[in-house]
Design a protein that fits this description.
Elements: E1 16-25, E2 28-38, E3 43-47, H1 54-61, E4 69-74, E5 77-78, H2 87-90, E6 92-95, H3 107-113, H4 123-128, H5 132-152, H6 167-180, E7 185-189, H7 197-214, E8 217-221, H8 225-231, E9 234-239, E10 242-247, H9 249-253, H10 256-263
Helix pairs in contact: 3-6, 5-6
Length: about 280
């Protein structure tokens, strides 16, 4: 069986590389010739005002959207022929702006769903729950409970239905489900939006733990500039679908084009960008 990834290897230094991406909805250009790349082991932030095209870029990586032109490479292989369900198999997991969980299921069952993309038990053994299917299930549960649930400090809610939980805990469960996919690259779309200060600090700490202890490369979309400037290695800035800047946080903090995009006037102090 042939690999669905196109035969166009990249010799890039990047784990994920975007080249000249162009996306249009009707007569509106959502992304215009966007090129960027994420190195293995980085926390890479994508920022910009509302409507800048940030989530659309993640949707192209996930193959939810199909750009009119441009290429996306992951681990050196071009992804244009992949389907959305192929992406987790590569090692790319994601959380969303709005929590996307099964509200009537328990926390543990929601998290376990994240690993199903990697399960390979046969229909018979799975149906009667014996042999390899049972061993796989027990091993999965042990790993989730001892590693992921412990990391995100959600042991006390593991048997609760997701729909009964407050928003901040639901965001943790969604992160846990993404981690159950064993990602090499984790896409986080506004992970602290709508949270109070304590919840923001908790999620930020968990993101750093996943990065530092698990070695996961992270792409982060976030409007909280304090979080972005504190934890990112590099920052890419979009404005109306165009990349206007990219570099280390300190460089982005002082960039006049970035300040203007956020504040509307070049002479306003950069301190409001999180200094």
């Amino acid at each position: 069986m042939t690999n669905p990834v196109a035969e166009q290897p990249s010799n890039s230094e990047f784990l994920l590389e975007v080249r000249n991406l162009f996306l249009r909805f009707g007569g509106v250009n959502v992304l215009t010739e966007v090129s960027t790349g994420v190195r293995e082991g980085e926390i890479f932030a994508i920022i910009g005002p509302n409507g800048a095209g940030k989530t659309c870029l993640l949707n192209c990586i996930n193959r939810f959207y199909h750009p009119a032109k441009g290429q996306i490479y992951f681990q050196g292989q071009e992804m244009s022929r992949l389907k959305p369900f192929d992406i987790p198999k590569l090692g790319i997991a994601r959380t969303f702006q709005n929590v996307e969980l099964f509200r009537g299921m328990t926390v543990l069952d929601n998290i376990k769903l994240g690993r199903h993309v990697h399960l390979d038990t046969g229909l018979l053994s799975a149906g009667f729950y014996f042999g390899k299917a049972r061993q796989t299930e027990l091993g999965l549960r042990k790993e989730i409970e001892e590693k992921i649930i412990d990391l995100l400090e959600i042991e006390h809610i593991r048997k609760k239905k997701v729909g009964t939980l407050p928003y901040g805990l639901q965001k943790r469960v969604e992160l846990a489900r993404a981690l159950a996919m064993k990602p090499k690259l984790l896409l986080l779309d506004e992970p602290v939006t709508g949270m109070n200060l304590e919840e923001t600090e908790d999620i930020t700490r968990f993101i750093l733990d996943v990065h530092d202890e698990w070695g996961v490369t992270i792409i982060l979309i976030e409007h909280d500039m304090g979080v972005v400037m504190d934890i990112s290695d590099r920052v890419c800035v979009l404005d109306f679908g165009v990349k206007i800047a990219e570099g280390p946080p300190e460089q982005i903090r002082h960039n006049e084009l970035v300040i203007k995009a956020y504040l509307g006037e070049q002479d306003l102090t950069y301190s409001r960008l999180g200094a």
